[in-house]
Amino acid sequence: MINQRLAFVLLVSVLLLLNPKEFLIDNPSAAQAEILRSTLLGLDLAKVYLFVETEYQYDERLRNRAISRFATKKLLFNTSTAYKEGDPLLRVTVNWREIDGAGLKKGLYYRKIELAENVVSERTPRIRAWAITASYGLPEPIVSDRPTIEQLERDLDSLIDGFIQDYSYANGKRD
Questions:
Q1: Confidence (pLDDT) at 153
Q2: Nearest alpha carbon to residue 15 among 33, 28, 29, 2
Q3: Measured distance CA(163)–CA(74) in Å, rounded
Q4: Which of 12, 28, 38, 82 is buried deepest, with most CB atoms within 10 A?
Q5: Which numeric CATH code is attached to 42-170?
Q6: How far apart are the first and last CA of the chain?
Q7: Distance (Å, rounded) from C-alpha 110 to C-alpha 58?
């Protein structure tokens, strides 16, 4: 199965080869052309609530790890207040759930990161809709044995690193 990021890079590369003027952000006629931009462009992480979805015994450990991972790149969330309905939500999921009644000791393992926010469309500018505006990882769970805490940490790190890379590139924050 092709990684989502690799598939995206391949698509953009093909589009650039076919008609580069239509897809370059620095194109002088960008106002007239449809251009490719990241949905992370202009995202203010200080207004985003970070939520880590995992098994209850790992909640605090993985949330602290996630915050620390972002902080090493000087990307900080507002962690001083509780989540308010309607605020942007970055949900990192590294969660395993046993398959009920199977007796196989197998479960569904979810690995993804999604940014959900209220968006306004051109068609209906007075209506806000809750939507996933960025998503990385596996869209559907896989059947697996229960992952170890070390596996959960590696997967969490990988998801966050991918998000940080895309966020940094979209917002011109390079090391």
A1: 98
A2: 33
A3: 14
A4: 38
A5: 3.40.50
A6: 31
A7: 15
Q: Letter for the amino acid at 68?
A: S
Q: Decide: helix, strand or coil at residue 142.
A: strand
59: left (phi over 0), alpha (psi -120 to 50) or beta: alpha
Hunting for tokens 């995202």 — which residue is that?
43
Encoded tokens for 132: 């996933």
Mean predicted confidence (pLDDT) in 132-156 = 94
How many whole angstroms separate alpha carbon 173 and alpha carbon 171? 6
Average pLDDT, the chain: 82
Task: Kindly report, as residue ranges, where domains of CATH 3.40.50 are found in the chain.
Answer: 42-170
pLDDT over 70 percentage in the chain? 77
Which has the higher per-residue pLDDT, 30 or 39? 39
User: 152 pLDDT exceeds 70?
Assistant: yes
Convert the pLDDT of each residue in 138-149 to its tens digit: 999 999 999 999
pTM: 0.74
Q: Hunting for tokens 């309905």 — which residue is that? A: 85
List the beta strands (DSSP E) in the chain: 49-53, 89-98, 107-120, 128-137, 142-144
Token couple for 112: 């993804």
Cβ atoms within 10 Å of 98's Cβ, excluding its own: 13
Q: Detail the DSSP E strand segments found in 2-141.
A: 49-53, 89-98, 107-120, 128-137
